[in-house]
Structures
1.
Amino acid sequence: MARPHGNPPQCPQCRAGLADQAAYRSMMIPADMADEEPRAFVVIYCRTCGRALGLRAGFGLQT
Ligand SMILES: [Zn+2]
């Protein structure tokens, strides 16, 4: 079902090679609770289709 295409790892949605197409963006994500501060996260995503692939807590911004 999965055809070989470029070098793994691949985007699970569009199968773009992530060696070329992965990117990250820092985002401030609001808290569910109104009295909590938004926190910085780094989202790793596929530049070809925009699918988010992973999320990491931002470092050194807020704890
Ligand atoms: Zn993709």
2.
Amino acid sequence: MRMGTEGRDDEQEARHKSDLVSLGSGDAASANAKPGSLIVNETVFSDGFVPDAPLHRHVEMATIAESVKSDTPHHMWLYGKPGTGKTVVLRHVLKQTCGRSADGYIEIDCWEMNTYHRVIDQVARQLDRASRKRTPFEDRTRGFARQDVEDYLRESPLVIVLDQIDQLCLRERNAILYNLAQIGRVSLACVSTGLEALMELDPRVRSRLNPATVHFRPYFSPELTAILKQRAEQGLRLGAWTEDVLRKMAELANGDARLAIRLLRESARLAAGDRTDRIMPRHVHAAWKPLWREASSWRLSRLTEHHRLIYEHTPEQGSIRSDRLRHFYLHTCETRQLSPVAPRTYAKYLQRLIQARFLAESPAPGRKNLHLIRRCAATP
Ligand SMILES: Nc1ncnc2c1ncn2[C@@H]1O[C@H](COP(=O)(O)OP(=O)(O)OP(=O)(O)O)[C@@H](O)[C@H]1O
Ligand SMILES: [Mg+2]
């Protein structure tokens, strides 16, 4: 979780500023490179780095800014596939719009903070760090006084970002949103990979939330090339890259900016290991496969245990009939004492695995039953 206002997370902010000072293309930046390395600034390749101006997201930025600036609190639901810029764009807009307000904004990673009480405790902890004027919410004898935090939020405008909201089970998602959305001046910015996590909410919660939805589509190849160029100019030695290799990387990354930026960094490392002063297509190819595997297992680890069970029961070699797959899934749930998801949810999970390219339908026309094959890791 991070606060977005100046004066908090001081250390991190100072580091970020000194990183920005050291940025720049050309000879000055090249002078920062370690001998033999093509990288002059590692920070611009880190996930938390927020570029001065995110590219190609003007419409999304305008919609978010409009919501945040409004006098009455508005809620937002940002959704899109991994690496489509949801977090970085939101942070950029919030830094600009909330940067001067008393408490700015608060980011909560729902992967870690998965109950309403935890969320409120985190909000209080961050507010305490942010303000030196107010009496702190935390009291050594009784911990955080939730009522005090809620009362405070009723009076003071605050944006709370709920990142990875789709990682919460439906019960907690309903509870957290129901409670937070009714607190007077709080605006919620929910971030998820899809709209399903919004659609399956209890109708009362959904109508209370009534968010503006903002879709982040995957980047087109030329857009990714521009994002890569921006990073290469800030992070690599002069002359270490060509537009051609950046284009190649953008094509491979297939709309995912995180993957593209990692590919750029790994290719630069391989080129340096090869003792060349420029990234060649062979470095891109060599960097790609392990990166793709790593990204796939990371994405799989972010899905639910039920998604993973379905995936694991699909054989690496050959295919499996969908009814047999379901049979194995139910059997494993029983042995692990897990309650299986309902048939409709199971069908949705299966579709999600196919859409995310973890599984594929076996190309066997004329077969009565759906056959599935495993794709992940085998086919970058
Ligand atoms: N429009 C952009 N301009 C510059 N950099 C970008 C842009 N979009 C994404 N990036 C960079 O790509 C990386 C991934 O972006 P981000 O973390 O915002 O993706 P995300 O949509 O939040 O992904 P996830 O769903 O996995 O959390 C970050 O390093 C970010 O700085
Ligand atoms: Mg994100």
3.
Amino acid sequence: MVCALFHLGIINTEKSAIRVKKDDLDTSLNTPVFCRQCKEMKCLEGEEGIKDKARNRFVWSRVHAERCPFDALSILEEKAYHCNLCGGDPQCIKVCTPEAIRLVP
Ligand code: SF4
Ligand code: SF4
């Protein structure tokens, strides 16, 4: 919720750059899915010129998100939501009281 709220000013978990996948057997295995901040961005292969800009952007086009080999981004209609680390101050880490998320270099 905080991701969409911080970036878009709305509460809509479908427009969040981080989502939680539940396992099919519902054994409480919850896996967070988000952009891995790859050095070599397969999602932008052939478009080197826009990599730096794209890293900092939250809203991406669906086309780039669909090229991600990790299926990391939430896609809704023609847009996708990309973790830009909130410009260096990750909001999801701040509000996660069980401390389930950490940012490591
Ligand atoms: S969108 Fe996918 S390929 Fe691109 S940087 Fe993120 S995890 Fe890596
Ligand atoms: S670091 Fe920011 S952009 Fe990335 S998932 Fe967390 S709240 Fe969203």
